[in-house]
């Protein structure tokens, strides 16, 4: 008896559903972090304070998010493991079989870009969620000064460089992940599949560039 489904279709389905959920989180997260660029630190702190005001509900959402991460990583590792077992010798040279195969740098490196993102998220959450609690007061209301922490972290060029590098990995991961998730959810259609594929490229570019702008902007202008 195992907690995980045996069939590879079910594992891919779980991976796809959690991947789309995480993509939605990343889109929302980028939108809220763009508040760092308004020029008024209060905008960002007011928003994060509003989120913290959800108290136990926020904790439930965070636990749900953590569960999505765990199921996404677990199912990805199992699909990868199944593939290794089915093809123990491996191929020494990967060559794209053309438009229908979609073998690209990003599809071949999903497991590696995924592991980099896992290490990043652990470091990132320790830095910000569990980092120093600076305090500020806005309109008489005391709250956490997360803006100050973000500026402090991105005043270090090593952190900025690491963030920029990881966002390139995020883009590579999303480029293939978006398209692949839709395929796993049964969205394959000769006419629409090229559209999903292009959609994946656009989603990857917008999110990676959006997240790159933030640390670079903070480093140079805040
Ligand atoms: C420049 C880019 C980013 C900035 C400035 C940023 C900022 C932050 C901050 C300030 C927090 C703490 C908020 C809180 O305590 O509720 C946070 C939490 C988090 N971030 Fe980011 N983030 C960035 C990029 C990313 C990326 C690319 C990912 C995922 C791939 C990510 C995943 C998370 C997660 C999972 C949390 C924990 C959420 C929670 O506990 O509510 N972040 N981020």
Description:
The chain is mainly alpha-helical and 222 residues long. The chain has a single domain, classed as 3 helical TM bundles of succinate and fumarate reductases, CATH 1.20.1300. It is 71% helix and 4% strand. The chain has helices at 8-33, 41-52, 56-86, 105-108, 110-128, 146-153, 157-184, 193-221; strands at 135-138, 141-144. The termini are far apart. The model is unreliable at 96-100 (pLDDT under 50). It binds protoporphyrin IX containing FE. Protoporphyrin IX containing FE (HEM) binds at residues 26, 29, 33, 48, 51, 62, 117, 121, 124-125, 128-129, 146, 150, 163, 170, 211, 214-215.
Which hetero compounds are present in the coordinates?
protoporphyrin IX containing FE
Q: From the alpha-carbon coordinates, what is the Rg to the nearest angstrom?
A: 20 Å
Head-to-tail CA distance between termini? 55 Å
Number of domains: 1
**Estimated structural class:** mainly alpha
The CATH topology name reads 3 helical TM bundles of succinate and fumarate reductases
Order of helices and strands: HHHHHEEHHH
> Can you tell me the CATH architecture?
Up-down Bundle
SSE blueprint and pairings:
Elements: H1 8-33, H2 41-52, H3 56-86, H4 105-108, H5 110-128, E1 135-138, E2 141-144, H6 146-153, H7 157-184, H8 193-221
Antiparallel strand pairs: 1-2
The site of protoporphyrin IX containing FE has 19 residues, from helix 1, helix 2, helix 5, helix 6 and helix 7.
Give the gist of this structure.
The chain has 222 residues and is mainly alpha-helical. It contains eight helices and two strands, in the order H-H-H-H-H-E-E-H-H-H. A hairpin with a 2-residue loop joins strand 1 and strand 2.
